[in-house]
Amino acid sequence: MLKLEIVTPERRVLDETVDSVTVPTASGEAGILPNHAPLISALKPGVLSYSAKGTTERMAVAGGFVEVSSNTVSVMTDAAEKASEINVERARLERETAERELAAQSTAPIESTESIREKIEESNAKLQLASGK
After folding, report:
1. Angle between helices 114-130 and 88-104 (to 10 degrees)
2. How many domains does the chain have?
3. CA separation for the pair 87, 81 (Å, rounded)
4. What is the Cα–Cα distance from 79 to 13, expressed in whole angstroms?
5. Residues 110 and 97 placed together within one structural domain of the fold
6. Residue 4, class by beta-carbon neighbours within 10 Å (0-12 exposed, 13-18 middle, 19+ buried)?
7. How far is CA 108 from CA 30, 45, 60, 96, 111, in A?
8. Buried b (16+ CB within 10 A) or exposed e, 36-73
9. What is the pTM of this model?
10. pLDDT above 70 covers what percent of the chain?
11. End-to-end alpha carbon distance in the chain
12. Bridge-partner residues for 70, per DSSP?
């Protein structure tokens, strides 16, 4: 069993015992099972999933970090929302605004638009989760 903790600057979102966790890291999805090797990785915006007692739950997460140590998975993220908490219209508006901002900076170096691209990824994750995909 794993202890999964998800924390945002505003609140402790989750503190549960789970069987497995899948997180969207900067280098791709990482599956975490009990006795996983110690790990610290950057999170990218996406869908985090975890399984407990035969059911799988999913959450949209923003960027942040994940640390795995001694069967504890600690996720520190700017935002984490379950499908039922997502405001679909707001997520669409955030994505459209970020896409317009990115288009306006089309000649800017890619490094300077990273935060805008992350906002688009975060909005897409929310919309994907809310649609049940």
Report:
1. 150
2. 2
3. 10
4. 9
5. yes
6. buried
7. 31, 22, 28, 19, 8
8. beeeebebbbbbbbbebeeeeebbbbbbbebebeeeeb
9. 0.81
10. 99
11. 27
12. none
Q: Biggest alpha carbon distance in the chain?
A: 50
pLDDT interval class at 133 (50, 70, 90): low
**Same-domain check for residues 35 and 65:** yes
Same domain, 66 and 110: no
Q: If we measure between CA atoms, which residue out of 15, 44, 23, 19 comes closest to residue 118?
A: 44
Which residue range is the domain that position 103 belongs to?
Answer: 85-130
Give tens-digit pLDDT for 97-120. 888 888 888 888 888 888 888 888
Q: What is the pLDDT of residue 45?
A: 93
Burial group, residue 128, by CB count within 10 angstroms (0-12, 13-18, 19+): middle
Structure tokens at 1: 């069993």
Here the tokens at position 60 are 């949209």
Residue-level pLDDT at 116: 86
What pLDDT shows up at residue 19?
96
122-131 pLDDT, tens digit per residue, is 888 888 888 8
